[in-house]
Amino acid sequence: DWSPCRASVIGQPVGREGPVMEDAESPAVPVPVAVGDDDQEQDQESRQSAQLDAEAEAERPQQKLLRLPLSRIKGLIKADPEVTLASQEAVFAIGKATELFVEVIAKDAYTFALQAKRKTIQRKDLDNAIDAADEFAFLEGTLE
Question: Is 69's pLDDT higher than 90?
Answer without folding.
Answer: yes
